[in-house]
Amino acid sequence: MLGLSGSLRAASVHTALLHAAAQTAPDGVTMELFDGLADLPHFNPDIEEQEIAAVSAFRAALNTADAVLIACPEYAHGLPGAFKNALDWVVGCGEMSEKPVLTLNASARSIHAPAQLAEVLRTMGARVLEGVLIEVPRQARDVLDVPGVAEALQEMWRSLFQTASGADALA
Questions:
Q1: CB-CB contact of 43 with 88 (8 Å)
Q2: Contact 143, 13 (CB under 8 A)
Q3: What separation, in Å, do the N-terminal and C-terminal C-alpha atoms of the chain show?
Q4: Who contacts 30 (Cβ-Cβ below 8 Å, separation ≥6)?
Q5: 11, 57, 75, 99: least buried by Cβ within 10 Å?
Q6: DSSP assignments along 38-98, one per residue
Q7: Rounded to an integer, what distance in angstroms lies between the CA atom of residue 1 and that of residue 30?
Q8: What is the pTM of this model?
């Protein structure tokens, strides 16, 4: 499974939530976090076919992943620009086609970005699973110390494996 954070912040709660998800993953499930989104150049269709190391690394990570777990914040009622840029680099290449994708949201105040993200992912041909809300305060130092987070992540994994699409994708 590949983890993607929609935030470039060093102290991102969304990135921390992905690390916590990796720590709570069931036996037999390996989750790698891709940390190269900040290295991607601005998407430009004129250079889309050129060999760009950061883009190649991103595409390769997606190609080898059985499924994708995305934790993405909401900025100004939308997706963060850097994350949308990353998705633009793979929209026409097929890396997300039929790939199961689960989204995590760390704030109930995020009401626009989750729907936008799901729409973009569906447009790319991804199999978008029902998103999960796990509230984490922005000032949390260790998200697994936040009451209820570890249990919510364990429930997320259980639910994912109980769905036919999740079980097929991660087995």
A1: yes
A2: yes
A3: 11
A4: 1
A5: 11
A6: GGPPPP-GGGTTS--HHHHHHHHHHHH-S-EEEE---BTTB--HHHHHHHHHHTTT-TTTT
A7: 6
A8: 0.91
